[in-house]
Amino acid sequence: MVKKSNAYLLGGGIGSLAAAAFMIRDGGLPGQNIFILEAKPILGGSLDRAGNPVDGYSLRGGRMLTTDNYECTWDLYKSIPSMSSPGKTVFDETIDFNEQHKSNSMARLVDHRRAKVPVSSMGFSMQNRKELLELSLADEDKLGASCITDWLSPDFFETEFWYMWVTTFAFQPWHSAIEFKRYLHRFMLEFTRIETLGGVKRTIYNQYDSLVRPLQSWLTSQGVNVILDSKVTDLERTTEEGKLVVTGIHYQQKGESKAIAVKDGDLVFLQNGSMTDASSLGSMTSAPKQLTKPDCDSWTLWEKLAAENRDFGNPAAFNSSIAQSLWESFTVTLKNPAFFDKIAEFSGNQAGTGGLITFKDSNWLMSIVLAYQPHFINQPADVQVFWGYALFPDRVGNFVPKPMSECNGAEILKELCGHLRFELDIMESANCIPCRMPYITSMFMPRLRTDRPLPIPHSSKNLAFISQFVEIPDDVVFTVEYSVRAAQMAVYEFLGIERQIPPISSHDKSLRVQFEALIKAFK
Q1: Which of 77, 160, 403, 458 is the most buried (most CB within 10 A)?
Q2: Helix H or strand E encompassing 7
Q3: The whole model's pTM is what?
């Protein structure tokens, strides 16, 4: 039965790629029976990369990885051959790389005096500790759609812990208390070493080159059909015994309307919503365009389905306030090692060992990270690339008298050099490409449990959701793991696979981790 079925994956992000791999590896579905439809000319979704050494490289973002968590991700990548290390899997090469380049940040926070802030203490008062404990122990039904600010006093948001935690994970004070609580539990082990980022693992290159390319290559070798430049516009659907059944897929490919008939036994996986929808790039001379909801592609189909059935969630909980889900990143391409050398001298970390440097008194709350070089597969030896971001792009800068969202790349570099007290001529060869992302933390918005559908809603027969906007108890959004776990759950349920899905590691239940977290909280 399985070998006669087709599977249609609508969206080419990491969730869809993972689902295709699980169907082949664990479900026995032939690759030629799997079809991935992607609106863009490249797969990878939010795990993307663009550019070249001449015009400048660009990364919308980078994802933190750990080998103490990310159980489903590593379960997948233990099966995917590396493209850069013959004879090894992606998991193997990642482990080996991180053995050679261990994270040990020595300049995690920098203040307005350009001083490295002591971060051995979290800066908590007894009231802060009490409130944080109450939030971490609260039931999710009690937390409901409350914000972090509903549980923590104003002075909490000035602690060293807050600056480190929120810039590591990109939280804002007005975000969901539930998501904040889940992070405290899921990454309790990281809490014990948050000041050094000692648990953070990196891929050899950016995550498109290290995660997407090898997975796509393996899927192609298995015969998976990839249909690019294809925007899905609607699903034909009916109801059988109270359950939705998708019977057809309508899409636009290069201006031409096309349709696919979905037959009995076929499966459809939809990537509902996107954190990088309506993203826009700027340049050294222009700020990114300020795109909004009408410029989006990923929400419309989910909104149609949700309007018909409450089982399919509530997209409005996530996409209704750009002001609360926006931040901006920037990628800098250099042709002179002077900046990297001065950062190493200032921070004490060579590129690839320090993680984020956050300028805690920056109006924009700006952070930068210098990865191990090269960071791109085709990056020449005499070119360096680093990435940065800011959580408050709507605020006027400290050294540039305008909001970051109105700044071009040259102005962002001026602001950065101001915080570092570097002469601006160190950036003479730099090409800074800013990226505005209006929905980048939309998955952190305050929500109810029912606002996110299950990977396979109870009232669906052949439609699954794979994205950051599905409900997986105890796991955390804004991670590669969340998309991969959603994919594995949906595939295993649809295909009746008996192999166990790797459970979420319960570090928060470990007495040792609890004790170390307690000590950390009282330092």
Answers
A1: 77
A2: strand 7-10
A3: 0.96
